[in-house]
Amino acid sequence: MGAEHTNPGPAVSGVVAIIRLREGEPDDAIATALLDGGVDVMEVTLPTPGALAAIRRWNTHPDILVGAGTVRTACDADAAIAAGARFLVTPTTMPDVLAVAHAAGIPVACGALTPTEIDLAWRHGAAAVKVFPVSALGGVGYLRAVREPLDDVPLLPTGGVRLEDLVPYARMGCVGVGVGGALVSADLVADRRWGTMTERAGAFAAAWHEGLVRRDA
């Protein structure tokens, strides 16, 4: 596929909350807490117990854009789309996942890390490229260097993203950020500290908005 792209569905942008749990199914209070804080894009990773059921439930909420993460095979893609996922996120670039998603009109954020991997993911038809794990190679500094020659590629830095990273990521033109444990941590879920989760969501949403404002200034 060439470098001409049309997004086949709703764009994955802004703060993307990543729900990755090892124990227990996602409580609907997670979605409520995030939404109350201003984060309305949610990625439920498929290894999370009850992931597909959560996607089905949350997809019925008119203000939530919910998708599936850690989609690695065509079967994963089929199951996630059948459950109502409105976008898919992959850890790597898998052409068979892209083929299934494109046939269904569902956008995919493909995982990549090096400039070559990022460009190939884009040229294979990714709606955005999840740069993962971005913190392992320097975070903001690495993204700034990568973006210089690849400024036409929508980048979604993910992996170790901190609150203080959001303003520079937004200012440099990233389409969004994927935030996992810093936003939806296992301890907050286990202790049902929904108020704290809402506060964190509010802080991340505000920081992203600040970065957008400063980019356009």
Describe the structure using short key phrases:
217 residues; 9 helices; four-stranded parallel β-sheet; 8 strands
What would you note in describing this structure?
The protein is an alpha/beta fold. The chain is built from nine helices and eight strands. The longest helix is centred in the last third of the chain and has 23 residues, at 194-216.
Indicate the structural class.
alpha/beta
Order of helices and strands: EHEHEHEHEHEHEHEHH
Mean of pLDDT = 94
First-residue to last-residue Cα separation: 36 Å
**Spatial strand sequence of the major β-sheet:** 3-2-1-8
Helix content: 40-55%
Fraction in beta strands:
15-25%
- What's the tally of helices? 9
Q: In total, how many beta strands?
A: 8
Shape: globular
Radius of gyration: 16 Å
Unreliable residue stretches: 1-7
Biggest sheet layout: 4 strands, parallel
Compile the SSE list and pairings.
Elements: E1 14-19, H1 28-36, E2 41-45, H2 51-58, E3 65-69, H3 74-83, E4 88-89, H4 95-104, E5 108-112, H5 115-123, E6 128-131, H6 140-147, E7 155-157, H7 166-171, E8 176-179, H8 186-191, H9 194-216
Parallel strand pairs: 1-2, 1-8, 2-3, 4-5, 5-6, 6-7
Question: How do you describe this structure in short?
Answer:
The chain is an alpha/beta fold. It has helices spanning 28-36, 51-58, 74-83, 95-104, 115-123, 140-147, 166-171, 186-191, 194-216; strands at 14-19, 41-45, 65-69, 88-89, 108-112, 128-131, 155-157, 176-179.
